[in-house]
Amino acid sequence: MSRWDSPAGLAVKAALTGVERWLLPAACLLCDESLSPRDDSALICDLCRLRWRPIPDPICDRCGQPRLQDLECRLCAGWPPGLSRVRSAVWLEGSARDAVHRLKYDGWPRAADAMARAMVGLEPLTAGVFLIPVPLGNRRRRERGYNQCDCIAAAVGDRTGLSVRTDVLQRVRETPTQTALTPEARHANVAGAFRGDRVAGLRLVLIDDVFTTGATLAAAGAALIEAGAARVDAVTFARASQGLAPRS
Ligand SMILES: [Zn+2]
Ligand SMILES: [Zn+2]
Fold first, then answer.
1. What whole-number distance in Å separates Cα of residue 41 and Cα of residue 31?
2. How many whole angstroms separate alpha carbon 22 and alpha carbon 8?
3. 31 C-alpha to center of ligand 1: Å?
4. Beta strands in the chain (DSSP E)
């Protein structure tokens, strides 16, 4: 009988679980409904998760953007070679957008678990790949205290059994925020911003919260291939619609 299996140990354990549950919010982070006691680690309720809308087929084989059949994809035409394909779980809208926000800016790293649940079926997450969270620049990481992509990668790793590597991709220079830039300017902005290391022969899957134009993922993928990776794919929780999401 270990110390924790003794009657006193069990009482301590029960008390600790009680404290932890008490510290968790009793209501969903997104809609304020009370959380099901079945899954007392969840921060986001089932109803909110079920409202997230998956990206519909057909999609571009490389960047994963929905498109009209037989038309060449313009979104990834300008990407540097390296990144093989990107897949995203849901549209960036409504409560999916709220979940991203809670994780990134509101200090709820465990919101990543609900996001990971939506991602685990994505094609690139096959046996033997390593999960690589896209690193933040040092300054941004200091400001935020953590990297939201680390949280998502850890949660996807927990659910799939895939290993996470945070030591093989570095951001070697800070990049100004991308939001106000055109797609072309975004590529120039992030070109050469990453360096890969110790990835020779490995199959890698980059992990990011949101796909917008893919410029950051494409630059990171190019750096990892340059460092000798056998293949680089990427998965993101959400995808900005750029006018393509059907109206609900
Ligand atoms: Zn909810
Ligand atoms: Zn494409």
1. 17
2. 21
3. 4
4. 83-91, 130-133, 163-164, 169-171, 194-196, 203-211, 231-239
Distances (CA, A) of 59 to 88, 94, 115, 216: 11, 22, 21, 20
Q: How confident is the model at residue 170 (pLDDT cuts 50, 70, 90)?
A: very high
β-strand partners of 91: 239
Q: Which ligand is nearest to the CA of 67?
A: 2
Query: Please, what sign has the CA dihedral across residues 195, 197, 201, 206?
Result: negative
**Greatest Cα pair distance in the chain:** 67
CA of 28 to the centre of ligand 1 (A): 5
Instruction: Quick: pLDDT tens for 32-80.
Output: 888 876 665 678 999 999 999 999 999 999 999 998 777 789 899 989 9
Please give the structure tokens belonging to residue 136. 């933040």
CA–CA gap between residue 101 and residue 95 (Å, rounded): 9
